[in-house]
Amino acid sequence: MRILFASSEIHPLMKTGGLADVSASLPVALKRLRHDIRLLMPAYPQALARAGKLESMATVTLPGFPDDPVTLLSGMLPGTRVPLLLADAPRCFQRAGDPYRAMDGQDWQDNHLRFGLFARLIEHLSLERTPLGWRPEVVHCHDWQTGLAPVMLGMHETRPVTAFTIHNLAYQGLFPRHAFDALNLPPELWHYQGLEFHGQMSFIKGGIAYADHVTTVSPTYAREIRTQQLGNGLDGLLNHRAESLTGILNGVDYKEWDPGRDRHIAANYGPEDFSGKALCKTDLQDHFKLRGTSGVPLLGHVGRMVPQKGVDLLLRAAEPLLAAGEAQLVVVGTGSSALEQAARRLAERHPGRVGVHIGYDEGLAHRVEAGADIFVMPSRFEPCGLNQMYSLRYGTVPVVRRTGGLADTVVDADPAGLKAGDATGICFDAALPEALTDALTRALALYHQPDLWRRLVRTAMAQDFSWARSAEAYATLYRDLVAARVPPGKP
């Protein structure tokens, strides 16, 4: 099948979170299944710098954007054979900062125009209104930044089928009414069954309401977002579309995340020769100037420092263990200034036991996965999560809250799980520091039983969450959508 895969970020060109990893790995897996897939992303400065050789294919002026002609740059996603298209609209995308925010951390005030233009380009590529000579059968859009594309394509009788993936429903692309007017959309879309959402315009609602099929990134999260608790006001619409909503678990790119060949870590290792992990732990302790205390487990956390990720729970739950000298902690991430400050203060209170890196560092993320003994993900909600799956492969036992993809990928080391031999980590339920402290205490107790811990680690490392199975599920979905749209006997 011919598939246009549109995303606002793709690793290694641009990354702020798991969306970038998925947008890099899933297309590669689909390409292995012999599909004709092409990636589309805005041409941010970082993307242009990292993309390698690019060729200018065409320049188009899109309806509603007369002052922002878009030059399509063609190349290959680095390290792959997947064709890449970058949308070069300098006034919209040639900016310092990340894709959505300025250097001061504030959202760009014209994000509705920037990603409205991106959606209009998706529409025109999908209808072969550019000189590329290629027309997709399937358009797969991701998160709110592409949410208007299924809306625009839905206005055409002859069009490709559309799939829209929710990576995190909490980020909805909400804008005031004047943003709707500025995009010159049909007035009838300003309606509670259209793009209007409590007096605002919602990009993500457009994707959910107008795409032929909606997916999200784990089966449990697909159920959770249909509840009032995690539906973010869209649970009614999601329940209405329940028959067209599927949870497909994200996968892991084991070419990038494998301790046996990871180029970022101090020593490679595997389930049969685990000795390199001790060297990775020493390397991580040295990097953060932690005391090399033997027999003390090292806890790790990598992620956005926002309430969703439960970083506040981690900082509070770890305090008594740190004070007692029962654990060390390394935290890598950036986000809320309050949480960043709280992490720094924790490190000041426990010198030699806590290491903090504010910012994202891909290489350091790999070193944490390899060097920590226990990886902590106490998320209040987690659509899928990737770090817990990385941790399993690295023999770094995950401690997770039982939600979303965390519930789908980690088997609790309770008595039943240990007896059955399928336990891979520690799970807890309540989003409370006390519940996390109890879970960490359980993990530490297992850590101090070397034979039991080694069995737990071996089971964890044997898990397979590669993209092959998920890519097959998406390919099946695409085929079903195309079959349902094209009448029998028609091309």
> What would the CATH topology of the largest domain be?
Rossmann fold
What is the average of the pLDDT values? 96
Largest sheet: 9 strands, mixed
Strand count:
18
3D architecture notes:
The protein has 491 residues and is α/β, with parallel strands linked by helices. The protein contains 19 helices and 18 strands. Helix 11 (311-323) links the parallel strand 13 (298-302) and strand 14. Helix 1 crosses helix 19 (467-485), helix 10 (275-287) packs across helix 13 and helix 11 packs across helix 17. It is globular and about 65 Å long. The two termini are 13 Å apart.
Condensed summary:
The protein has 491 residues and is α/β, with parallel strands linked by helices. The chain is built from 19 helices and 18 strands. The protein has two domains: 268 residues, 3-Layer(aba) Sandwich (Rossmann fold); 189 residues, 3-Layer(aba) Sandwich (Rossmann fold).
